[in-house]
Amino acid sequence: MDIPRFFNITESAHRIHNPFTPEKFATLGEALRLKSGDRVLDLGSGSGEMLCTWARDHGIVGTGIDMSSLFTAHARQRAEELGVAHQVNFIHGDASGYIADDKADVAACVGATWIGGGVAGTIELLARSLRTGGVILIGEPYWRQLPATEDIARKCLANSISDFLILPELLASFGKLGYDVVEMVLANQDGWDRYEAAKWLTTRRWLEKNPDDELADEIRSKLSTEPGRHAAYTREYLGWGVFALMPGISPGKT
Prior knowledge:
The protein has nine helices and seven strands, in the order ααβαβαββαβααβααβ. By secondary structure, the chain is α/β, with parallel strands linked by helices. A seven-stranded mixed beta sheet has the order 3-2-1-4-5-7-6, with helices on both faces. Helix 2 crosses helix 3 and helix 8 runs antiparallel to helix 9. The chain is globular and about 60 Å long. The termini are far apart. About 40% of the residues are buried.
């Protein structure tokens, strides 16, 4: 069980597999008012940067689950580097059905809502691991500006315009699912550059070492087209953010 090899190659040097920067994760940790001993569950934890830095900076304990064996190994190495291996545990596995034995103070899926079949299903999955009064984190793209055509949406690597909402509609959609939005931290264009552009040097170095690999032609083609596509489309049309949710309170109840 693993993610497609293409992503293990192109993102092999990434610590963060989404458009957040270390500064954005630091802002999010502060915004959530994390406390020492808080338990955090991260489904689709990638290379573990969120859990590891929050363990270092806030004293949280946590578990991350990811399908990439490479990223999971990187996460364990990062925990050792930061001296928090006793606080965080990383599991190589399928997060799509994972339910924690110990309820979490924060249950997160930051950029991998496909594990629950979309935002609604992922929130439902995370809620099963959340303690009463806890917070759910959802990382999700949104349209900064609505594409005029389906072709533009596809060039943003969406299947269609309907894949994503504009930000006000995304926020409203959480309310329709019965959740209050209690915080949000949004990525910016620099974050998109760090996520996307960092792949280009990684793939260039990989091609130098693996010119005859079965994926070499595909990766070489991507390297020649991705900078222009990113600059024209992803960078201009797509936003991305992490949204903190709590179950809504009915009128007259506390």
